[in-house]
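hi! just following up on the protien thing from before. the input was this:
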Amino acid sequence: MQTVTSKSAPLVSENPSWGFFGTAKSNFGLSDSDAASLFDRAGQQLLLSGKFGDREAVVEFLDCRLGRHFADALSFHVVGAASLDQLTAAVAVELSAKADAWVKWLRKISR
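and the predicted 3d structure came back as:
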């Protein structure tokens, strides 16, 4: 797994009640600060994949209903209480397995 370190401003959810942020917070019992950190880590991985566009597009993806489903998908890669590092690794696994499918679904709902 590639370690992601952000030297630019962190990616911030504009939809903290829903989307990836709210779902990850609820599903994994994260605090606001941990959910914000996971949002940024996931977003940085999406940016590095080169498949989801620029920072704005990545935030839009994570904040939309697909972001909610993306957070739900992490549940398939962790068992029980998970640390931020485990959840970040789960993002990497989900992307390596299904990045093209997530992009396809995003294009489909964006029409």
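The mean pLDDT is 92.
The helical segments are 19-28, 32-49, 55-63, 65-73, 84-109.
cheers
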